[in-house]
Amino acid sequence: MSEFSTFAVTSLLAATDFFANGWASLLAWKDQPAMWAVLGTMFLISGLWALQPGARGGWRVLGVLACLAGLGFCVRLLPELSGTIPVVVTFRLMASLALVSGLATVTAKNPVYSAMWFAVTLMGTAMMMLLLGGQFVAVATVAVYAGAIVVTFLFVLMLAQSSGRDPCDRLTWGKVPAWWAAPAAALLFVMICAGLHQESFPNRQEGAEVVSSGLIESGADHVQSAAASLPVANSVAQRFPESHVAQLGGQLFSRYLIPVQVVATLLLAALVGAVAIASYGTASGIEEQLS
Amino acid sequence: MFEPLNLLILVPGLPLFAAIVTAVLGPRLLRHRSHWPALLAIGGSFLISCLLLQQVSQRLPAEGAVGVEEWTTFYTWLAVPGDGNGNTASFLMDVTLRLDPLTSIMLVMVTFIAFLVVLFSIGYMHDDPGYWRFFAYVSLFVFSMAMLVTASNYLLLFVFWEAVGVCSYLLIGFWYKKPSAAAAGMKAFLVNRVGDFGLTLAILLMWLNYGTLNFHDTDAVAGILGQQRLTDQLPYLGGGIGLAICLLLLLGACGKSAQFPLHVWLPDAMEGPTPVSALIHAATMVTAGVYLVTRSSPLFFAVPSAQLTVSLVGGGTALMAALIALTQNDLKRVLAYSTVSQLGYMFLSLGTGSLSGIIAGMFHLFTHAFFKALLFLGSGSVMHAMGHVIDMRRFGGLRHVMPITHATFAVGCLALSGIFPLAGFWSKDAILVAVHDEGLVPHAEMTSEVAYRPDATFDIAIGHAASDTDNVRATIFIWLYRTALITAFLTAFYTFRAFFLTFYGKMVIPEEAGHHAHESPPSMAWPLLVLAVCSVVIGLVGANANSGLPAFLAKTPSLAVLALGPDEAAGHASSHTMIAVTSTAVACSGIALAAFLYLGRRDEVDLLGQFLQMKWLEQTADLRWLDGIGYRLGLPALVKVAERCGCGWITRFFGTVITLVVSVLLSPLWLGYYISPYRLSAGKFFIDELYQWFVVLPILKFSEFLYAVDRMLVDGMVNLTGRLPRDLGGIVRRSQTGVVPFYGLSLILGTLVIYLFSVLFARS
Amino acid sequence: MNDFDSLCQHTMLVGAGLFALGMFGFLVRRNLIVMFLCVEMMLQGVSLTWIAAGAYHNQLDGQVMVILIIAVAACEAGLGLALVMMLYSRQGNLDILSWQSNREEGRASFVDHDIPESESTSDPVWPTLTPAGVAPEINQEDQLHRSHV
Question: Which residue from B65, B69, B92, B76 is spatially nearest to B5, judged by alpha carbons?
């Protein structure tokens, strides 16, 4: 049995105890991470329940609070976030920003607001990528996602739903999602969190060795990777060298050349497809457009 | 060197070619000229047949052989080698055509009649939408019939036996949009199946017992009718197997030649065009059964009881059909029953087993073809003029309207009645003589007659000359002779009844005829005239039993063998004159009765009809006279008194009992009324009804039962295998909601479950 | 467990959170565009996890993957939005439930029974301004071809 399954079974036992004996049982389980998982799940479920479209407006605040509480319980499963204060504070700020604006994206009644909130989520995500050394990626996310994709979404929204009021935005589809969607989402989240739990997290050292050797082999000659020889670093600066964006470029055009080509072709195909579909969808049709 | 045998293939070949040409080119190219291929081909066949006849008549029997025969193999149809150990015989089936007197006579007769009928049809069938189809079918029929009579093999004979049946079916149902025609075609086909079943079994039995189906000898094996067997080197089967073979052959012949009990299809077959009735259902195809029995006569010699059966069937059918023909109102139907009756005559003659009898049967077949074709074509001419009305009650007195038809029809009637010196007289006289002589056969001669046959069983059966058996046989033939005389009388009567009804009396023309009730065009009149002349003179070819046609036929191998025996007929020449006189007198009296009844006013006919309907029986059987008697006896008063006294039930009880008893006592009267002679005749002896009740209905009910089983049980199981997946799928099918997010939810839940299981049961 | 590793792990938690939220939104929302946004959010969560995992293992492959993901997401957004436009032009709204014809024969379609009252039922009130300048000429043909105001 894996550690994860041990954890899951313990969680089930804790949940059973909780439902059988009430809050008092929490004391017995309080040092067990499984209990945090159980509580997190339940809070998240009730929070998402309260936030789904068509729920009563008065519950929204409670729902947000319950979600945050569930998130808090789940965070308890992970090891303590340590590091320098600026990093920790920035991370917490950005994480909260991303999650709360993500929640707002999902629950906003006006799709335009959803798109706006999604842009905010992207900002938070980009900041977190930056903290982890993904400088190019962070910039690309902001530029491509927030700058292009979200704007396209807004264009479409303007074209398609200029009135901004549609009953379907304030409704979900019957009782089925109420019973299944929130539990599924909460359970998935908690399961991933349990996977991140300290004891079940995979050993980094073994993995690092393997992947480092691969990096050296495939790296370009002039970008001599220092990563392999480095001891386990404690900060971004230590972990990634100054030139790691250049290394990223080298990787993209050497080891990942074929995927890049494939994706480029895909982009071209999507471009043509989008033009065709959009022209076909409008009243006149593509033949008329061409002639 | 010119070899006439090489021309033999042309006799069936030309009509086949014409049939193909007509079928291919008819609908588009030939159209109203579609008769030309058939006419030319059949004419050519006739000329070649005459040539062949002449060639055959000049030949003499080969050294050590009986009869004249030639055969030639054109094609090896089937060749299945045996296993070499003698466990299975090799099966070799050649398409072999033969030429002997019997075949050449049949060929000449068939092609001649067919030629005239095609000529007649040009006028008769013109403007018919199926013009080309008609001539294609007729050509195909002539091909099949020629192959049937030239085949030198029972299996090949059977193939073309079926082929003429198919042509008959196609031509009966020629106007297939007419329901009665389609039904008649179906009936002919189905009834013939019964006969063909017998023929099939006979062929199988012959294969099993003789090891071959060839008529002729080959290097490997002696044929059934080959020289080796005929010249007493190999025995014919007697006993049970021989009897079975003969009776099954007879069954097949009965089916094709419309003998009791399989005669029911022929009267219905008159739904076809009249030239077809003349060609197929009077002159040629229906004689195939007679041909078959004649051809197989050596097989029948070995089994005297089978011969007797042939005679009994023939005599019975002749009488029965003649009785039925008395009351038919449909001109063609009278002629159809007449055909059945005359075919019965032929069978009667074939069953005598003497050479003269068999030759008389074949002779009658030959002459009958001419005058019966003449009569049918004449009736076709009448029909043509009357707008396809054939009911004799609806026309009459046509002799001035249609003089040629009238005259030729009269010749045909006289010939059919057997008036000296027309064709029918000679052949019918020959038959009567043969049957009469069979009744006088001295029994010692029987044994000597069969002595040339070394069949052990046969010799033992006949050799001790059980005089009782032979006396019984002679008695039967005496009675058959009387039956034949009665039939001759009836034949003359009904023939002239039809004749007088049609051509004499007050002139009546149905409205269907319109204003153009006229004599037929020359293309129809000429065949009538030719056939009339033939009907007069053709009998002369057989007038003398020792020369002409009889002598020629006697050179057929399977008949020539009979001549080896003593000629028992020679001694009774004086009685033969008596028979001729008797039969002519009988025929004349039949004509006289018909003239008495149907010429002039027809009051006596109605009286006779009423008498024969036995109306008085119905009046007697009607129980209302009981009421009158009871009233006179004062029974109502008695009943009233009884009811007053409170014992009305006693009177009612006795009333019921008396009614029941009287009803039972009178039931024979009712029966007599319902099967009064007139009703029996008009109702065709209720044979169709009997078939309906005892054959058709049980089969129908059984098929319905099987259909129900099939529908419920078999279909049920099949449907169940289809339903099971569908209904099981119906449980899951409800999940197809059409709501897209629901599909997404299902996807995600499924992924979640898989994820859960994969991590729970993962190996760490 | 050093500081950077814990940062990686917490980033992964945020990634999981975004993924779960996106999934939730995809299931409960009915607006086609919002559903698309939710899918994009799930992709964002995955991207974040890739970055964190790469950093945790001291690797650049995660970042490469994210670049590929961005490209695929761009394709998907382009095609998807084109489809949304087409569907909108057919049906006149963005409700995913107006496309239910793919259901099993005999099944009733899903119908909303509790459509909430619109928050403002009255027509929007435009500001009234004093006319200034020349009144624009309104081409009637253009008016005909305008979709709606």
Answer: B69
The predicted pLDDT at position B517 comes to: 67
Cβ atoms of residues B296 and B245 within 8 Å: no
User: What is this structure's pTM?
Assistant: 0.64
How many CB atoms sit inside 10 A of residue B82's CB? Answer: 12
8 A C-beta contact, residue C16 and residue A74:
no
User: Could you tell me how many residues make up chain C?
Assistant: 149
**Pairing mode, if any, of strands B70-80 and B91-99?**
antiparallel
The whole-number average pLDDT for the span A80-84 is: 84
Residues of A within 8 A of B748 (CB-CB) are 184
Q: What is the CATH number of domain C3-99?
A: 1.10.287.3510
Q: List Cβ<8 Å contacts ≥24 apart for A229-238.
A: A230/C58, A232/A204, A232/A205, A232/A208, A232/C2, A233/C4, A233/C58, A234/C2, A234/C3, A234/C4, A235/A83, A235/A84, A235/A87, A235/C3, A235/C4, A236/A131, A236/A132, A236/A133, A236/C4, A236/C55, A238/C4
CB contact under 8 A, A177 and B761: no
Instruction: Note whether A168 contacts C30, CB cutoff 8 Å.
Output: yes
- Chain C partners of A264 at a C-beta cutoff of 8 Å? 71
CA distance C40 to chain B (A): 15
According to DSSP, the residues that pair with B92 across neighbouring strands are B79
> What are the tens digits of pLDDT across the range B625-683?
777 777 777 777 777 887 788 777 887 788 788 888 888 887 777 777 777 777 777 77
Domain edges within chain C: 3-99
- What are the helix (H) ranges across B296-354? 297-301, 304-325, 331-350
Reported ipTM = 0.82
pLDDT tens-place string over residues B347-397:
999 988 888 888 889 999 999 999 999 999 999 888 888 888 888 888 888
| List of residues 6+ apart from B604 with CB closer than 8 A | B596, B597
Q: Please state the domain extents for chain A.
A: 2-109+165-200, 208-290
Bridge partner residues of A210 (DSSP): none
Structural tokens at position A193: 């969190």
B116, B529 contact by CB (below 8 A):
no
- Give the CA dihedral B385, B386, B389, B395, nearest 10 degrees: -130
Decide if C71 and A267 are in contact by the 8 Å CB cutoff: yes
